[in-house]
Amino acid sequence: MPVPLQRDPHRTREAITQWLADRFPAEGTPTIGALSTPDETGFSGETLLCDVKWNHQGRSLVRPLAVKVAPARHHLLPDSSWHRQVRLQELLATTDVPVARIHGSESSGELLGAPFVVMERIDGRVPGDIPSYHRSGWLTELRAADRAQVWNGGLQLMARLHRLGPDTLDLSFLDDPAHGRAYGPVGMRRQFGACMAHLEFYGVQDDPVVLRAADWLRDHRPEEPGPPRLLWGDARIGNIIYSGHTPVALLDWEMATLGAPESDLAWYLFTDRYLSEGLGLPRLPGLPGRRETVATYASLLGRPLRDFASYEVFAAFRFSLITSRVTRLMTGTGIQWPSGRTPYLRSAALLARVLDEAGEASCPG
Predict the structure, then answer these.
(1) What is the DSSP string of 83-132?
(2) What does pTM read for this prediction?
(3) How far is the CA of 210 from the CAs of 120, 207, 307, 336, 361, in angstroms?
(4) Domains of the chain
(5) Is the pLDDT assigned to residue 293 strictly greater than 80?
């Protein structure tokens, strides 16, 4: 959900200027231009865009920067993952997975009211969530073949992430007790346990569709053989920067965890389904469908997908929890929903549909 710039621009520029001057004294005196926010900024955090000019020994240098501020008011998830996502992004910058390079981070909230990270700003464009990229925006203006390139390019980068060997990076910080070891072994079992422990936080502890899905998932959690892989968590084309039709960077590591690649692919598919079918919109021609996407990803992984229906139900279940939280937070700001069709009601209806499909697929004959 886009969040407009709500802080005082002058004071914010002063704070960032002070931080840059203290952090990079050898660069000279920085001057920060106008602040803006991207159209795709998340509801729970802020991203501030600016051009910074340094004058040093008669030399002028301009750098486009992005300043991402940790959530201070709206927390979509029950556990803070700010420092973990910053650390992960720094680690990924040493791999062939394209992410924005971090110039530095601030762990205190003294300057901007919350911790923040300063990173390079990558030029490009991102498919929008509001309004859905199925309704308007640059994807609607592309040829069908170009849309397929956008979709499959995202799959290729996600597979690059999943192909990182378990020993490639030290990801033990994603497996610490505070992050959920008490909920069981890594993978869907832990993620499901964490969701169930926080139903009240999401406001769905008495919701019949959510509880029905929870019962189904208890009976259909996969074994997940093999070593766990790094998962993006919020895997979707709306978290990818594209240059033309080519993906150039993955964004947003707030939900990163360890588990099976099927989990990311199911989220990739379900979030797209919500932004089309869930909102009553026709899906854009050219975007590969479920069957083709599953086949493509199996080829990229080099193995068949396992128990994929379970991951699809879990994606729909988890998405409903998050949209319930978003709905409650946004309603608290006074937002009125047309015809009462809140994001949660739409996602819950789609969750029920996914459950019905999973039940039909499991029936003999």
Answers:
(1) HHHHHHHHHHTTSSS--PPEEEEE-SSTTTSS-EEEEEPPP-B---TTTT
(2) 0.93
(3) 40, 5, 20, 24, 20
(4) 9-120 (3.30.200.20), 138-362 (3.90.1200.10)
(5) yes
